[in-house]
TrEMBL record:
The keyword Transferase applies. Coiled coil: none annotated. It catalyses: apo-[citrate lyase ACP] + 2'-(5''-triphospho-alpha-D-ribosyl)-3'-dephospho-CoA = holo-[citrate lyase ACP] + diphosphate. This is citrate lyase holo-[acyl-carrier protein] synthase. Pfam families: CitX. Its EC number is 2.7.7.61. One of its GO terms (biological process) is prosthetic group biosynthetic process. It is an enzyme of class 2 (transferase). Keywords: Nucleotidyltransferase, Transferase. It comes from the Bacteria.
Length: 172
């Protein structure tokens, strides 16, 4: 129970932080974190995954990045980016990354508009995110605890290792 309360506190602090930044700068905000189960969310795997995703998003949004903040929280490493772009277009791009990039299934990219309203997948015409293990609704699998933490972690490690192997083979 303490873990859930601590995580809820951390999420609450993140939301307050995000609201303050949006109020101050009036920009589209994206918050990126690794969808990592369990307690130890700040580790080698999450830092490496978030680093890869940071590079991808920086390449995509290039000169539209107004501000980028990297923080370590109880939710793990989180990147907050303010963009000079329409929030709905940003959300569509982020969904494409979540749905089509090798690492997309193991990250969570939230997009907020200039008023701090979260833009969900349905509001831009996309279906719910799918589970990386069984392909069902990811939110349903989380809610029902359909998969063990060890099964999820093993799958995440496999996805990351496979991505790095392919990426480095292409680069070198």
């Amino acid at each position: 129970m303490k873990e859930k309360r601590t995580m809820a506190d951390s999420e609450g602090k993140r939301h307050v932080f995000q609201e303050e930044i949006i109020k101050k700068y009036k920009k589209t905000l994206i918050a990126i974190k690794v969808d990592y189960p369990g307690n130890n969310k700040d580790n080698y795997l999450t830092k490496n995954i978030i680093g890869c995703v940071d590079n991808i998003l920086t390449d995509i949004f290039k000169d539209k990045v107004y501000l980028k903040i990297f923080r370590i929280t109880e939710e793990g490493p989180i990147i907050t980016i303010l963009l000079n772009l329409d929030s709905y277009e940003v959300k569509k791009t982020c969904i494409e990354i979540e749905d089509k990039h090798a690492l997309g299934g193991i990250i969570d990219i939230e997009v907020y508009d200039l008023n701090g309203k979260i833009i969900d997948r349905q509001s831009v015409g996309y279906e719910e995110k799918r589970c990386i293990i069984c392909g069902e609704s990811a939110s349903k699998c989380k809610k029902l605890n359909s998969h063990s933490i060890s099964e999820i972690l093993e799958n995440m490690k496999h996805i990351y290792t496979e991505y790095i192997g392919k990426h480095f083979n292409e680069v070198y």
